[in-house]
Design brief:
Blueprint: E1 4-5, E2 12-17, E3 20-28, E4 31-36, H1 41-53, E5 59-60, E6 68-70, E7 73-77, E8 82-85, H2 87-91
Parallel strand pairs: 4-5
Antiparallel strand pairs: 1-2, 2-3, 3-4, 6-7, 7-8
Length: about 110
């Protein structure tokens, strides 16, 4: 499918053509989301190819008004960019007392 994984957001993949972003994809088990222009031929071909290779139960899409919740994050599709908001996810993280952590030797 020739997607490139983003180093700053693992499990998020981008597809570019002619120097432009064509689609942004996230796949995790059966939770999937694809951003792009659904009216473009490139987008439609990408979605068909993904459906051939993965069992996606429900595709999610987003816009700039209502975010899409996916993988514990809120995704917004704006006119010029896509925003991945991890505030809720990060706020639920708990500190780990590394002094109490034990290791098991094998």
């Amino acid at each position: 499918l020739k997607f490139e994984e983003l180093r700053c957001a693992r499990a998020v993949f981008v597809k570019r053509a002619h120097g432009k972003l064509v689609a942004l994809l996230t796949l995790h088990v059966d939770d999937s989301m694809l951003f792009g222009d659904p009216t473009s031929k490139e987008y439609q071909v990408i979605k068909q190819d993904i459906n051939k290779n993965f069992k996606v139960k429900h595709w999610k899409t987003g816009n700039d008004v209502e975010p899409v919740e996916c993988l514990g994050e809120r995704w917004y599709k704006h006119r010029e960019f896509i925003e991945i908001n991890m505030h809720d996810y990060v706020s639920k993280l708990k500190l780990i007392d590394v002094n109490k952590v034990t290791t098991t030797r094998v």
